[in-house]
User: What shape does this take?
Amino acid sequence: MPHLVAQVAKAALPFQLALAAFALAFLATLASLWLPAAKDPKDRAYASARVLFLAGLALNAYLVVDLGLDSGRPPIKTHYESMLFFALLLGLLVVLLDRLRKVRILGAMTLVLILAALGFALHRQDIEAAALPASLNSGWFLPHATLAFGGYASASVALFLALLALRKPAGVAFEPGSFWGRALGAEDVDFVKLHRQWLRLGFLLLLAGLATGALWARSAWAEPWSWDPKQSWTLVTLLVYGAVLHMHHTELFKGRKALWASVLAWAFILMTTFGVGFLPTRSQSMHLYSDPPAPADAKDVKGIHPEMY
Amino acid sequence: MTDSLEPGTKQAAEAAARPFHLNLPLQAAALLGWCAAWMAAQSLLDHAGADPRRQILAFLAVSGALLVALSLRARRWAFQLFTSVPFAIAQLLFLAGAVAVGTFVPQELGPKDVQAHLGAAGGSDSAGFLLRHAHAGDLYHSLWFSGLLLLIAVSTLAVAWKKRPYPMHRVGFLLVHLAPTLILLGGLWGRFAGTRAFARLRVGEPAASFHVVAGADPAAWQETYDLPGFSVRLDRFHVDRYDPRLKLYAFVEPDGKGGFERDPKAYEARQGLEGRLPVAGARFKVDQVLPDAVDQGRWMENPAAPPNPALQVLLGLGDGRPIMGYLLPGDPGTSRFDEPGGRFGLVCRARFDTAEAAALKAPTREPGKLAMTYLGKTLEHEARPGTSWDFPVFSLKVVKAHRDFPFKAASKDIPPEIRGPWLELKLRTGDGQEAPIFLCARTPAFSDEANAKVLPPGMTLRYAMEGGEAPDRFALLTLEDQKVRLIEGGQVLRAEPITLNKPFVLAKGLSVTPMALLPHAEWVPDFRPNPEGGTSTPGRPALKITLTDPETGTSESRWLDAGAAAAGAPAGQVFLGGRVGLLFREQPAGPRDFRSVLVMQDAAGRELARKEVSINDPLVFRGHAFYQSNYDPRDPGVSGVTVVRDPGRPLTWLGFACLLLGTAWMFYLKPTLKRRAEGKGA
Assistant: This one.
């Protein structure tokens, strides 16, 4: 605990404020779910949650822009930067979804993931702005990383919606005053359909991320596809999500099985984002920008010097 | 792969009785069998000595024959299977699993390397057997993996065929299902007709032959690829680097003993920077930043500091320019000082040690080298006394090596150019005449001039001693018994009590005078801008900082030295009783880009094309793309270049485009187009 306090104290002031805003927004959302209508007739808890969420998002955006201006490059190089970028995209997508007012628990779920991302960023704070390796000095960097993280964020929204669809199948209604009645809102949202829409968006963005990565790899690594562990796991994730999309089109899996498959598929995003750095083949990867291999571990890959990938 | 293709069934009891094209467990088992069959086939082909090219040809031939057989004997069954959604799911998941497995085993290794990497698992037990025959070390190029890709291609084509015709709203579906085949065909074409090769190019030397990249080990790249009708020349290689930055790191959770946490707070070091340190709460202000500074500090007595005796001494060298310095017996780096002229050394120890005193003498030297330069060539000979160096018309005999001959006993001050070591030679010419030659190792120009009359015109002889100066005379100062001893050749010749301000004479003109003894010496740095401007005396960045504890009001002001770590000193300093650690260093200037100017030339050396290639910016010439891919940090004239020729690449890109466009079409254009088509129909 003292170490956590020290980590928070060492963080930049906008980070501390964003963290506080998101944490308070989360607590306010929970309060709005549990407080009986009689105790909060004007629904102030939820209004506060929305304001705090937007304030946190604005601070998060400021942090990302500030990191970019400070380093003079897209701020998506390190785990710290990537987590802030992911939190921003996820927050923006949920705001765009415009379901915060109607599906309260979606905001709470989003905030859990945003807080987890910021917690990880806190744990992996950058001591200083990292210089880009030569291969990342490319016009492909921003579109490729934005598409990939956009895919992760969309798939995360799809995860939340899949969980909600599992809780509230079509035709099921909750008491308006009950926890789930407040959590899911009065509107009869078709979560299965909404989930499928976000799943498709996530798949398309991940695919676009893969394609732009291949185009970039053609100029940086001399070939578009080299079975790099990061590339391979992105492909694995796409194949799994492709299978999940197909599951919605067969009676064998349609419904709860497909929804559970969608929930499980999200684990592959975690593996692609964090797990590749722990694989036994990490020394053969040219894509460990967040976790660069130790100098003793770094070696030429297909004739490419470690300082060049 | 299709929208609501299957009628299906909802009864779980019927699951086991489902037909094959709807039975996922059976399909998974069949896929496993399909892969196992290709694993066995590849092992047999390996055993038969078939190279990868022949193996893939055999694979295509057998697969083609199977497809023909299926279309002739079980067309309906096969079509039903390949177009079923459950089979698509099974294939996608199976392929995902296979790709994932390949990330757990180092790829593109030979069978022996796989065994070495896998350790015990790669041995003779069942796991090792499976890994070997699954060709896990080159999984993505194995036949069973190719078999999975072939099934995907066949399935998607079959589905595309089944869903005919293709009105506008279904075009996306067609594109998506054609894409895998296009990508795989592009890859196959590139594998057969393409190449990836590597060469280390040296500036100015054209190269037409590259090593084909095959496997992870560059030492195994034996096959060569010759550029067709042209060669590539490296004209220039350059590494762009980031500007170095001066950084100040604040460790706010130090343990007080110099142990600092992993993630300090970092600041851009600039004069005037001030703020409040997190956690510790102390305020700081950077008073001064000197990018190129020299330390003109000194040892000072600090009774509060731990015991660290230092003896201040004044050396008289007979030239009217005495040297002041400190000797610290507790520090190996500063407990001994050798006079630059090599005439004596000073050693300070806590206590006298007979064995150590006996070891204070010049080491037995190697005889050194005798070097002759004549007509632009240099020849070397061992300078061992008694040996002879014979030439057709004369010979040189090494007579004697003189450590300090012959002026040691001279009554006047000895100028450095005539001090030893010397080598005495005897020149004997073909007509029997002899002449002595003396070579001075310290100032060779002095002996060159003296020997010019004896040696043939244009010939020079030099005597090169290896290693630095090694004095044979020492003043040993010991603090416990407060004595200073004169030692020559390991023998104590004289001893006197240490008396402050009283010179101890070592030889005529040479003396050492103890000036002060500091029992608790502490180095107080005092950085000044480098007067040499960094040209001859190497300076380093230094920063002066003041820390104030707002609770107690105490303040500490100190210099931080960016070169401390390189000099072996503690990298960081603790402040405020160990509550804060500070480290100042110059962030290394890492590489930003690597640039090679490549010139394509024909056999006659005529320039055909020229471009500066860098990372992310290759040169494309006659279907070959040249990439900047390696360099030698120790040799700036070498650049590693990879050449790639891949005729299948356009097909691969077309496949990617179809997949992307088709997916977007299916998800976002199709509903609109479908509504419009239905509206028209109505």
Q: What stands out?
A: Residues 401 and 423 of chain B are 5 Å apart (CA to CA). The first strand of chain B starts at residue 195 and ends at 202. Chain B touches chain A through 77 residues (CB under 8 Å).
